[in-house]
Design a protein that fits this description.
Immunoglobulin-like; single chain; seven-stranded mixed beta sheet; alpha+beta; four-stranded antiparallel beta sheet; 3 domains
Length: about 500
Amino acid sequence: MSRDHSIAVVFYPFLSFAYGMFAAVSDMRFLAIPLGCLSAGAIVVGAAAAPAANTSGERWFKEIRLLVLPDEEALHASLADPADRVEFERIFWARRDPDPMTPANEFQGAVARARSRADERFTRSGQKGSDTDCGQLFVLLGEPTEVIGRETKVHFDAAEALRGSRRPEVWIYRSRPGDAVAFTGGELRVALDEECRFAEGARVRDDLLRVARSKVVQPRLGYLKKPDGHLARLEDVRAALTAVPVPTAPGATRADFPLALEPKMLLHTPGGEAYSAGLLRADLKGLRAGDGAPPPALDATVTVQAVDAAGQAAPMIERAVRAAVSADGTFTASYGLPLRPGRYVLRVGLLAGDKTSVASTPIEVPDYDAPGLKLGSLLVYPETSAAPPADARDPYSAFTVGALRLHPRFGNVFAKVDSLHAVCVIYGGQPDAATGKPSLRARLSFNKEGRPVAMGQPETFDTASAVVSVGPVPLADFTPGRYVARVEAIDLVSGKSETQETAFEIQP
């Protein structure tokens, strides 16, 4: 340990920080609905297709009631013309379509499949399963992480617990890294009675509403009324948006204002994917009011799209954000998406008012499931006060990890009044022939001008993955200047070693 500072290195073999207790980000995809229950392969209905057969009256609207936002409910109630209600339904699904370039609306099809499974599981005498509160929760949130009954605790895939006479149950949903919305406190508990009903307490209602808002992945699409009071057609709404296009083609560019990107986090998730998240910073001085003051708050849209090495572009992901513009005229927000192993160019855009800019950054996603020692990103971030309730429009929502809501700094610039966290996930390691377990050793240090100024003791562990973490470390005694956080790891069986570094700066 160095004479300057000492820091403790903490290992979490279960990866509670990263993802171990949560379902895979790979299940999230672009829908934020667990695809374990909304499986692929079923016929889906395109957004421009005619409404489903059973849409007369209020039926279709009630079938998806937990997906409906309050302003949508009010608008739908005000529509007297059946043709307007048909158009409303088309726009409703289009706003939630993860890939408008395909003829099928994947989200609408996923909801239909979830309703079918809910009918199989929860139908009771006189009521379809998908119409029960159990079914509605299943459509909105998918399978709970855990179900607690009167006397037993079961996993949701225990089908025998879901058939026959019901008993009161508590469904527990836990937040996952990369989710569009984090539940308050990291989990949501919903108590269901014998009739498969739940009472909407304030916390449950707020969490369900925030999840429903996160399903709107095309926030620029809206319900526009024509001068005669009728709804504009979906095609006309889309045409109106072409006046402010967001570049989507792999080679397209637009720069109405300076935009910089900073990749921050790369986490392995079960299923072979990784979750990538980063920050964008836009210089929006041109959006200042006439008196020169920045706007008190800005509603904007963050877009992110991955283009693989062959030039194939994945569907674009959109997310609405709302935050204040800093006094210096900059606006900071986050982006995040799941990626398979490979090389990509990420195209990240910001739509602010009628201005749009797009910037690109390369990224390589390793195959974390392949043999051998590997390190994830080394993330440094400041200690923050108690976080407010999670909000899908929070500009930092891409860094929601369970109950944690991280606020990394663009440029990793900190002040002496800050306290710093550093975290890195270690993966793999060759199993020992005698024990069948890996043997890994890691150490985290802070370095200045090539010399360690704070160093933890080496730690050895025998799990396939672990989190090396330190913090909060007060920076008051650190000399201002540039530093490097470093994690050094070695596989004691194979002898292979890996190092991960992240630069940061401490200002007076």
